[in-house]
């Protein structure tokens, strides 16, 4: 494609693009894209996001979604959980996505295009934060660059990959729900003293690791039985933060709770620090040998929170009926959790990040074995 085409004004049929991303079972997959329409969508998303603050303000009710990592079919399963009759869930709910759309899984392009197109169609209803994988330095290595080159060839693939990464530099870094629930991909760091510190981070932000606070927002992890901040030796980036940090920060920032993603949870979500922090991971079967669940969090208008769990599904279980059966079963189990009640004992299995998605390498997993997490997952269905 000659570069002059890339510079043309961005006119495209948004409705047609929405249709192409409307329903996994009724539309072609993988989705084919004209290179120019990727460029045009990116250009318009940049313009929309340039107007948004670095700390988004979002109102309940809404659905919060954690890591997706190129699992396009699972994104549609999430949408279908909220469908009513013929109206699809993506048209009925406000969403906040916590980042890590690309890498690891094989359909990062479908995931990010679907989300960006919905952002353009419903800007107030689709809120997209940046994850640590929405950075060229990371997604060159962990899958997205390869995906783009495989689909478009090395020269055009590289060019489109660059265009998408440039768009990521405009993505907001955190969100505040009803002034009470602070959300980000990774976590918090010592540089976070007030919410203004987040608002003051300027975008476009080329390398989030160049700024201590943006680095923590995208990379940091909570650490049980620790206090203060410690070196995040496993990731080699940013910090671990202890329960005392969460307690003090909730007090200081006058917030009730922190919601973040970034770590695989066997049951899709897990509380930390007396329910002051919750991790949500929305890519079921991210570790196929662990059969981890995915979860999304629903925040009601009165700030009650609940979780919807997604079972891993397999090729032999094709079809929406299975998804709905699984969803119904697990949604009944996932009764609404009142976050004022600190007694509920939930599974706290976490997995360390791995350099590549090598599913046979279980050395990188810590905490419990698959069997142990399996039993705790059945326990919590009470
Ligand atoms: Mn991450």
From TrEMBL:
Ranges of compositional bias, category Polar residues: 363-372
Region annotation (Disordered) ranges: 334-382
Annotated Serine/threonine specific protein phosphatases domain residues: 129-134
Any single Gene Ontology cellular-component annotation: nucleus
Record carries keyword Hydrolase: yes
Compositional bias per record (Low complexity), positions renumbered to this chain: 348-362, 373-382
Keywords: Hydrolase
Chemical reaction(s) catalysed: O-phospho-L-threonyl-[protein] + H2O = L-threonyl-[protein] + phosphate
Entry's EC annotation: 3.1.3.16
Annotated InterPro entries: Calcineurin-like_PHP, Metallo-depent_PP-like, PP1_catalytic_subunit, Ser/Thr-sp_prot-phosphatase
Basic and acidic residues bias spans: 334-347
PROSITE patterns, sorted: SER_THR_PHOSPHATASE
MF terms in GO: protein serine/threonine phosphatase activity
Keyword Transmembrane helix in record: no
PANTHER family per the UniProt record, alphabetical: SERINE/THREONINE PROTEIN PHOSPHATASE, SERINE_THREONINE-PROTEIN PHOSPHATASE
Similarity section: Belongs to the PPP phosphatase family.
Protein name (database record): Serine/threonine-protein phosphatase
Record organism: Steinernema carpocapsae (Entomopathogenic nematode)
